[in-house]
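Session log. Operator J.P. requested a structure for one protein chain; no other inputs attached. Running the standard single-chain path with token output.
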Amino acid sequence: MQGREAYERLAWRDAYEQLSAADRQGQLEADDLDRMARAAYLIGAIDAATGTWERAHHAFLKRGEAAPAVRCAFWAGLTLVLHGEHARGGGWLARAQNILENTALDCAEEGYLRIPMALQALDRGDPEAARRSCVEITEIADRFDDADLRALGTLGQGQALVAQGRAAQGVAMLDEAMVAVTTGEVSPVTAGIVYCAVILACRGIFDLGRVQEWTAALSRWCATQQDLKPYRGQCLVHRSEIMQLRGEWADAMDEARQACEHLSDRPGDPVMGMALYQRAELFRLRGDFSRAESYYREAIDRGHPAQPGLALLRLAQGRLDDAAAAIRRTVEETEGAEERPRVLVGCVEIELAAGAVENAQAAVDELAKIAAGFDSPYLRAVVANGHGSVLLAAGEPEGACAVLRGAWVAWHEIDAPYETARVRLQMARACRRIGDHDTAEMELEAARRVFEQLGAVPALKEVRQLMGRAGRAPHPSRGGLTPREVEVLRLIATGASNREIADRLVISDKTVARHVSNMFTKLGVSSRAAATAYAYEHDLA
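Structure written below.
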């Protein structure tokens, strides 16, 4: 059958359509219904997937095959629960459990039905109970040589160990789960679940090296499969986060936009909130505060927290009291091991701006304790940065210089240009305090070049204020933009490509390219990011 062949080729859209066509002719047996459900799931047709798994469940029961019927009920139930339909999903999981008990089956499906219980234990803050359940799940998988179940059990053990603060042991289990995925031992549905869960777990402990490595692997895996839907959006968000850290902001903006477009037809998907927050962060850093606020609010509507980003936006807008009130409330309310360090980083910056040095010191001390439990170069750089900034605010510029130099080295080794430039800004302040004006000016100039290249408008304003002038002295060739060149500049500042600008202005691509070249020459810039920065600084955006 063509549907089965397409399924084996990982052509999920073709498989679903061809199996659906055969189904309409009444040709599908239970096994093919299961294939059709999996294909539907992998193209994001969740309702079709759960409905078809329910049909496959009944078809297996009709054939007297209880074990595969239980497995179909499990996947239907778990999918419903993960998409917010807890009552209906719980009903299917309970049905599967009853069939197991009534038939006294000794099979791998017993392990699958322990997975929801392990997830519930993690959610209620009992990682040890979750870990024990996952050990039992893995033992059942080994007994029946079920690769999917073994990968899910190993994944759960890793997540539970990380939640217990045993990061090194947890990461080892996560890596083991990924071996089964990368060697093709598990089914595509399970592979996608493991990929995304491992990346989120590594992100939670700030293991950015593994996040980057596994995100690249997920991206390659997604590219091999036709119309794959459930995992591609999350992959794009993580790619955007990595690009942001690496200073590839234009590409990061594009990835985050694509993630939002990809997830727009999946209401209720929590990854959409993550994608919206990422877009907000990038707009905030580039000085487009109006759009940043809009995306933070949309993220809230999708159930994603807007802090610390929204508080940092208020700080950038000069609303210091609002920023301080928001971050203090958020610090009090945030307990999660993944969320709290991110909030504390924002807390340090805002409390220092508010002159609350003791509060900032408390946040840095807590970050240091968290970092001590993780092998995370990122967190070590964050702590050094915070410690140096607190010393500077406390009137110890000599000590601040030494600590900030260590932070600069740490950020540089991570290859994080924006954070490296932010440290140089602090080093310039410290050097001025001790009278080393030459070094201060060199640090400011180095930071200015990075911020201009990135299009980091708020940071550029900080640099130029420290340089003692509101903006750079105008270059002789920066004036004289024609009205059309101003239009092109404004569209570049929105992130539009030459093709999009041509469509908007109803001119040719070649004409756009000429306008861009002329504009770059007149402004004395060499990149779209720098042109965008100029547009925002001069109220042309």
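Operator note: The domain at 483-537 is CATH 1.10.10.10 (Arc Repressor Mutant, subunit A).
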